[in-house]
Amino acid sequence: MLTGFLGSGKTTLLNRILTEQHGLRIAVIENEFGEVGIDDALVLDAEEEIFEMNNGCICCTVRGDLIRILSALMRRRERFDRIIIETTGLADPAPVAQTFFMDDEIASQLRLDAIVTLVDAAHVQTHLDEAKPEGVENEAVEQLAFADKVVLNKTDLVDDQQLAQVVTRIRGINALAEILPAQQADVDLAKVLDVHAFDLDRVLESDPQFLTDTEHQHDTTVTSVGIDLAGELDEDRLNAWLGTLLRTQGADIFRSKGILALAGSDRQYVFQGVHMLLEGENGRQWQAGEERRNRLVFIGRNLDRQRLNTGFAACLTTAGVPA
Ligand SMILES: Nc1nc2c(ncn2[C@@H]2O[C@H](COP(=O)(O)OP(=O)(O)OP(=O)(O)O)[C@@H](O)[C@H]2O)c(=O)[nH]1
């Protein structure tokens, strides 16, 4: 299972796993938080079977779906060797792990190999420090607490002293998991795939209620706003709007991503933001006759839906038509 806070590098690692040679055929279950699904377009085209679960968070509302997909996969088990589940950045990994022990059919056929938690070295401390309402877990803490392997990603964004602080912080939450420093999630895959690292006895030692406590509450103050608009964008206006938005509200906008249509370009434009950091690159070519449209999503706190919609629509070269 791949877990880790929003934007920590889960899809980056997944893409590595799907493209590097390791001799394993992988089936993928992707769960995404956000009103508009983007990740399907960000996961590299691969031969592997990819299932998406986008109607809620894997750790609660769609757990039934997870069981159904796993069961369906088991009926064609000759087609793959391993299953990777990528959770949303806001998921509590415990209920997902429980699925492998509490559902008899799954427990008898599948083994949870490891919970691999991605960490964004530059942003993790802010999320670990977040105060949550009574009874609501801090997802970032849970994801680290349950990790069998921690991929300490984005070491390029911090200096040695900050990195050492993050390691101390991680150790305070999880004393045992191996910590693998990485950039662009470039870990040795032998350390995260097929490692037999999940140990139920160890989990029960630190969390005796692990198999019985199925209740958990999400932080409902984190929400998403999705935009799906046909039309083409003026690149300068887009850059100015997005730049200002993330500079002024990047503390609250944890994650942003989108697949956009820039005027004058025959390729899709893919942008990815994590707080104030923004990256963009050309994606695949628009196909002949394909409608130019823009899908993007913002995830965070205090999102002003109307302002996001009008701000974005003003970047279109023509009036946008809801797709
Ligand atoms: N600077 C830097 N950026 C990175 C590194 N690894 C990944 N990124 C960037 O971080 C952004 C988020 O990476 P993803 O792999 O999509 O993260 P994720 O955890 O799948 O994100 P969600 O699914 O939205 O939670 C992308 O823009 C990546 O290019 C790294 O080591 N250093």
Automatic annotation (TrEMBL):
<dbReference type="InterPro" id="IPR003495">
    <property type="entry name" value="CobW/HypB/UreG_nucleotide-bd"/>
</dbReference>
<dbReference type="InterPro" id="IPR051316">
    <property type="entry name" value="Zinc-reg_GTPase_activator"/>
</dbReference>
<keyword id="KW-0143">Chaperone</keyword>
<comment type="similarity">
    <text>Belongs to the SIMIBI class G3E GTPase family. ZNG1 subfamily.</text>
</comment>
<dbReference type="Pfam" id="PF02492">
    <property type="entry name" value="cobW"/>
</dbReference>
<feature type="domain" description="CobW C-terminal">
    <location>
        <begin position="222"/>
        <end position="316"/>
    </location>
</feature>
<protein>
    <submittedName>
        <fullName>CobW family GTP-binding protein</fullName>
    </submittedName>
</protein>
<dbReference type="InterPro" id="IPR027417">
    <property type="entry name" value="P-loop_NTPase"/>
</dbReference>
<dbReference type="Pfam" id="PF07683">
    <property type="entry name" value="CobW_C"/>
</dbReference>
<keyword id="KW-0378">Hydrolase</keyword>
<dbReference type="InterPro" id="IPR036627">
    <property type="entry name" value="CobW-likC_sf"/>
</dbReference>
<dbReference type="InterPro" id="IPR011629">
    <property type="entry name" value="CobW-like_C"/>
</dbReference>
<keyword id="KW-0547">Nucleotide-binding</keyword>
